[in-house]
Amino acid sequence: MRKGSHIAPAAIAAALVIVLGCTDQQSTDAVSLAPAAQHNQGGSSDTALTPQLVRMLAAQRGIGQLDDPPHVRPELVKLGQALMFDPILSGNHDVSCATCHVAAYATGDARSLSIGAGGTGLGPGRTHPDGVFIPRNAPPIFDLAQLRHMFWDGRVETDGHGHFITPAGSQLTPAMQRVLQFGAVSAQPMFPVAARAEMRGQSGNELTGIFDNDYADIWSGLMRRLGKIPQYRRMFEQAYPGKRFDDMNFAYASNAIAGFLVSKFTMNNSPWDRFLAGRDNALTQQQLEGARSFLTLKCSVCHNGPTFSDDKFHDVAVAQIGPGQGEGLQGRDDFGRMNVTGNPADKYLFRTTPLRNVELTGPYGHDGSITTLEGFIEHYSESDVKLHTYDPSQLEPDLRGTLLDNTTGVLAQRDTLLNGVVLTPQLVDNLVAYMRALTDPAARNLTRFVPKKVPSGLPVGQ
Ligand code: HEC
Ligand code: HEC
Fold it and tell me: Could you read off the pLDDT of 146-168 as tens digits, one per residue?
């Protein structure tokens, strides 16, 4: 992929991207070419690469150990787990949350773009008779208690004090908001159920006649469904002691799903966590090298904190494929954060992706346009050139023809941190090795969370 002419200046240019000791976002535009730049020249580097150094650099970027999962009442977890895997929440009983957040694929679906209502199959083998794709990649759902913004564009948001900003506006009433215990993730499950292409369906059930922006009616419709199943009535009342099912609304369901997610899909036993806790040999030498690069390069200016996300929005020049969000001249573009704020400065910005278990969660980027981890990291090297020369042959056949030429617009908005960034192949390898240290072994196989059956009696299909 890399052309010979790019290799020669790479080593010199790699030096440009070293920002050792630079810990806050504002000051990083003024990258100093200081002595720290010697780090990747190998051999006689000024500071020895020691575990202590790497822990210190991590602390400077706020990349500490991830907290233990919050304690969640077991009855709430049980209800949330049932709802997560139960196709009863989809209009035509054909899709559950776990159709796209699949246990066997590390809570994603191993596809560039998901396939929702009307599709059949699971993961890479899933197809839709009319070739309908969801415009974005299904992100992993690990460690979500930590994030204030949900979705690639952050359209579900909490201010951290119990106030939520969501596409439902005032339909998510203050009374409903008070039910939501786990931050932004508690409000998130209110939305896939309302989306036609994801779960509600186009026709054929009592929910499809409801207007798209009438969330309140869709949510009541779902509660009516659940209320017809005695086991759900019991489970809701056990999960929320002292409350009658008939007095509950869909926020109680959404909150339960979030309770399940935060308690079971928060995992903090990766080699990196063990390393931070003091086990020097938890990382290989190459991972240690990669960690130092990640922490001294610009990567950790955006990917920081225990989840490796600043919870903010940036344009890192990812190619646009698939149906998009109906934007732009051809109606196939995705303006990202601008959809939420209306601010042109937010065009093409997406939330910094958390990186724990990233080895397991490909394809990558908001539209899954880069299929391998190595490919995504390599993408940061001359990302402008990479965007111009993006190769759709890595995609599944149905998506190859969908590459949108929005390159000029995307590059106009590209984060200035990426200006002049060039990574040597060795550096890419080290970074990939380091990313693998972020995998908790417990995330490799999540099928233990798949219930044998769900209260509706519908097939779980995992
Ligand atoms: C048809 C596939 C599909 C189904 C079904 C689905 N999701 Fe998703 N999920 C996605 C996609 C795609 C996104 C990203 C969408 C976006 O950002 O616009 C997403 C985003 C999320 C996120 C945000 C994660 C983050 O890091 O911001 C959470 C949490 C989530 N889904 C949970 C659920 C739950 C709970 C359900 C069931 C109520 C569900 N999903 C149903 C595909 C799906
Ligand atoms: C300017 C902020 C910024 C910098 C610097 C940055 N990233 Fe990212 N990273 C992002 C954003 C934003 C995304 C999601 C972009 C999208 O989907 O359009 C992302 C996505 C990723 C992904 C894909 C994750 C997934 O699940 O889809 C990986 C891997 C990654 N970054 C690693 C790195 C590494 C390694 C570096 C340093 C070489 C780096 N990033 C530098 C902001 C940044």
Answer: 999 999 999 999 997 889 999 99
| Together in a domain, 242 and 282 | no
Contacts of 203 (CB under 8 A, 6+ apart): none
Give the Cα separation of 37 and 39 in Å (integer). 5
The ligand 2 atom at the shortest distance from the C-alpha of residue 350 is 12
- Using CA of residue 16, residue 22, residue 24, residue 30, what is the dihedral sign? negative
Ligand 2 midpoint to CA 96 (Å): 29
Q: Closest Cα to residue 233, out of 220, 245, 218, 221? A: 245
* Residue of 85, 151, 218 to test ligand 1 pocket, by largest number of atoms within 8 Å of CB: 151
Backbone angles phi, psi at 74, to 5 degrees: -55, -35
Peptide bond into 363 cis (omega under 30): yes
Q: Which domain holds residue 85?
A: 74-266
Please state whether the predicted TM-score (pTM) of the whole model is above 0.70: yes
CATH code where residue 123 lies: 1.10.760.10
How far apart (Å, rounded) are the C-alpha atoms in residues 142 and 66? 11
Determine, yes or no, domain membership for 460. Answer: no
Structural domain count, the chain: 2
The DSSP result for 170-237, as a single string, is GGS-HHHHHH--STHHHHGGGTTTT-IIIII-SSSSTTTTS-TT-HHHHHHHHHHHHHTSHHHHHHHH
CB of 318 closer than 6 angstroms to any ligand 2 atom:
yes
271 vs 49, 57, 258, 284, CA distance in Å? 18, 17, 26, 9
**Length of the chain measured in residues:** 462
> Same structural domain for residues 338 and 354?
yes
Evaluate: CB of 297 within 6 angstroms of ligand 2: yes
Q: Give yes or no: residues 381 and 415 share one domain.
A: yes
Rounded CA separation 377/358 (Å): 12
Q: Which of 307, 376, 387, 426 has most ligand 2 atoms within 8 Å of CB, for mutation?
A: 376
The two beta strands, 156-158 and 149-150, are antiparallel
Could you report the per-residue pLDDT of 31-54, keeping only the tens digit for each? Answer: 322 233 334 433 334 579 999 999
Asked if residue 161 and residue 38 are part of one domain, the reply reads no
Same domain, 118 and 174: yes
Residue 419 CA to its chain's centroid (Å): 25
Whose CA is closest to atom 1 on ligand 1?
116
Residue 300, pLDDT > 90, answer yes
Same domain, 88 and 223: yes
- CA-proximal residue: ligand 2, atom 25 (nearest): 364
Is residue 331 left, alpha or beta, with left meaning phi > 0 and alpha meaning psi from -120 to 50? left
